[in-house]
Amino acid sequence: MALPLKIVKKKDPRDLSKPEKHYVATKATGEVNFEDLAKITSQQCTVHEADCYAVLIALEHNIKDALSFGKIVRLGNIGSFQISISSYGAETKEELSTASVKKRRILFRPDMSFKTFLKGLKFTKPRI
């Protein structure tokens, strides 16, 4: 299956006076939620849909828990999640505190199998 593309117009954020250019971008074709994943997974194995859903909910909870303790969460051949922050700078160590945190984010680092998957991805021609 090929990933559909679309055409978008964008300005250069470094120089807004430049004319817009056209770029190709991926086009979402929908989404898959926990319920969908549970149903699909249950059809591929002997586990019931409700059990799959329960496992996914527990997985979400456990990932958040582990991240809140500063752990890196590795999900097999999928990749890993880790908390990252940005902070305000200070002249001395004593000036820093929890109030110095200005941005929080979750980093996802795909496993090599996911990177290989990306390299082999095919695209459909964008519609003009």
Notes on the protein architecture:
The chain starts with a strand and ends in a 5-residue tail after the last strand. It is built from 3 helices and 7 strands; from the N terminus they run βββααβββαβ. Strand 4 and strand 5 form a beta hairpin. Strands 4-5-6 form a 3-stranded antiparallel sheet. A two-stranded parallel sheet has the order 1-7. A two-stranded antiparallel ribbon has the order 2-3. With 128 residues, the chain is α+β, with helices and mostly antiparallel strands. 30% of the residues lie in helices and 30% in strands. It has a domain at 72-92 and 100-114. Helix 1 (34-44) crosses helix 2. The mean pLDDT is 92.
